[in-house]
Q: What sequence folds into this?
């Protein structure tokens, strides 16, 4: 299930501020061969996350990328006081074929070892009909403001894509 080759691909979330820099980034991504798809997303953060991500925003431009190294170089140019996130997929838990678009994404982190819990997580995911894809990701952040603490679960995050009809 854990695949080192997957770690090259993933998702990136950059604050979308409707300014010239955001519009340029969107334009660059539209024409990039490294970007598979682009979404406008609204994010919510718990109060507990403020120590790790002190300057998060609610509107993001999210893109699915093919090559992590290329996206890191690109995101570094657009780093601001608002946190950007790169989620590198390194383990696929569940993938279902569906013609229905994914329209809800949730991220959770595991406080215990991922390997110990992977079969339990997989069994739970299989029971949920609306879950289209789930995977284990590594989280990297970019921000001009240093957080109070380093996020301790960067390699223990699980992404879940859900279909809502």
A:
């Amino acid at each position: 299930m854990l695949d080192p080759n997957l770690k090259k691909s993933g998702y990136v979330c950059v604050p979308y501020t409707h300014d010239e820099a955001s519009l340029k980034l969107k334009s660059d991504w539209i024409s990039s061969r490294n970007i598979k798809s682009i979404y406008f997303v609204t994010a919510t953060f718990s109060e507990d996350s403020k120590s790790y991500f002190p300057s998060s925003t609610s509107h993001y431009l999210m893109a699915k990328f093919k090559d992590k190294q290329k996206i890191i170089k690109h995101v570094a140019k657009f780093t601001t006081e608002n946190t950007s996130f790169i989620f590198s997929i390194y383990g696929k838990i569940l993938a279902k074929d569906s013609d229905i678009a994914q329209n809800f994404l949730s991220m959770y982190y595991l406080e215990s070892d991922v390997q110990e819990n992977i079969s339990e997580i997989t069994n739970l995911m299989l029971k949920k009909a609306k879950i289209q894809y789930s995977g284990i990701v590594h989280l990297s952040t970019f921000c001009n403001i240093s957080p109070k603490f380093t996020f301790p679960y960067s390699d223990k995050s699980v992404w879940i894509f859900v279909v809502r009809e």
Notes: The chain has a mean pLDDT of 78. Residues 114-126 form the longest helix (13 residues). Residues 6-162 form one domain.
